[in-house]
Amino acid sequence: MAEYTPFEMIAYTGSRVLEDNTIVFVGTGLPIIASIHAQLTHAPGLGIIFEAGPLSPILEMGMPLSVGDTRACRKACYLKGLSSVFELTQRGHSDYAFIGGAQIDMYGNVNSTFEGGTYTRAQTRFPGSGGAGAMAANCEKSIIIMALEPRRFVNKLDFLTSIGFGDGSEEYREKAGVMGSGPYRVITNEALFGFDEKTRRMVLLEVAKGRTAEDIQKKVSFELLISPDLKEMAEPTEKDLKLLREECDPDGYFLARKLK
Amino acid sequence: MKNQVSSLIKKVSNLTNGDGAIASQEPFSWWGASPEKARKAMVNKPKGLIDKRTTIKDAVDKYVKDGINIAIGGFVNTRPPVALVHEIIRHGAKDLTLSFQSNSICPELLAGAMMLYPDHLSIKRVELAWWGYEVIGIAPLFRYLCANGKIQLDDYTNYGMSARFKAAAMGIEFLPVRDHGGADMELVNRGVMVESPFSGKNCYLVPACYPDLGLLNVTAADMHGNCRIFGAHCTCPEIAMAAVNTIVTTEQIITNENIRTYPNLTEIPYTAVDAVIEQRYASYPGACYGFYWFDMEHILMFRSASDEFRKTGKMDALKKYYDEYIFGCETFDDFLGKLPYKTLKKIKDLDGGQPVILA
Question: Residue A131 is part of which domain span?
Fold first, then answer.
């Protein structure tokens, strides 16, 4: 079996989750790589939105290093600015928000603002919402990448930056005035999660080969629901890895990093 | 406020009374111009097609004052108005409010100047969505300022900030948006949740942002200030139309005849621009589509000096950067003159010849 890194597994899994003939609004890094991989394999009809302005570019100049990279504009079908692409999400043009973050809770709410201390004296301030809060609100489904650690899968966020299902109540998102249906998948290198339709709580859908549901629960601070149909995560083939390493991120900006 | 309601955020929030965030502390006031003041300033401007070309120094001398709200154009490392920010640092200004959606080197350069020379330049508050370097890393000076409570924040999403500039560009007081609600963002910015007068549903309103001064670098402009922007527009057209005054650097001045041949390509009309300066590489070390890509090495150099300050409190490397590249230069061309030719060639090549229409 092929050898792969945790980041390659996350990118591959992200790719698997994206369906053909849909639009994905991406954050920087692994979401871009996953989307390029999906375009090169099962989803040639996948369009990408980058928040600086472009819709459905052809990324022939290589992977954009950020969502503001000028390369992300290459041969786009439509290219204006931030207002135009976020307004597309409000109107329902974007199927997926694909974001990362520092903490997530059982209802798929995400923190990317600060950790520790208070809002006005944050021990560790992150860059902030950026597009994430708007994407999680108004793209139809949110896909979230997170490192599988108890300090990231938390009972209570230090700050709720990007809306998930809130407190899990049925009317939470409607009362928030947002349009998207909410969290859809949470991707880690060892497990893939979804959300229970009735309780809106996080559900373990798939585990990496050799892992059990108990192994995953130990790395999550809140109680997970376990799918009665728990599956093993598909692994990238040699062909997938070649695409990821040679086509998607040939300089290894994101895939060649070491897991902290 | 009439009809003010709330989402269910308080059921899940970890913040107590907004945790001292500015949004929970003070009654609303315009951080910058009011809609009436901004309109009056526009009404009183001469509207002729005059020659607005000037120097960066003269434009900054004319429009930068203590206590004003300065909007920064571009998006992260794309088209940041770096040449204008260098001049503002030389000029100095206290108690500034900065407004932008996502930016990197510009607010960091201003923050570094505040760390070094607080009596010369200071930032009082920032209206923003995001402050960092993306692939290059977090912004060390922003993290330092937040950890030490040195700036007030008004914290939105990228769309929230864009909609705020857009509202001002439209001459109105606020815009309804579909985000911030149900997140702690609702408690740390000055937007409000209201009941829609039409459907009765919850609806989030963000206040317009009318900056006193907008800073932009655009692809091409004529001498009157008609601007073309290729690549992502970011929120540059909205900022130009929102601000009381706007200074535009441009990679290339083009003729008015050329502008009139393709009027649909004009993203900012001349009435929204007060000063035009042709300045090559005006976004360096950021990128300008069609001209040059960003210079990761130079950003890393400045970032590592900032990070050293954050981690150790030592200002030597930071001071050296400002002495060499900003205070040691009279103009932005002096700064560019300190860069190796190979660097400028490399970033030009890395742009890959993105297509722009200049003729």
Answer: 6-248
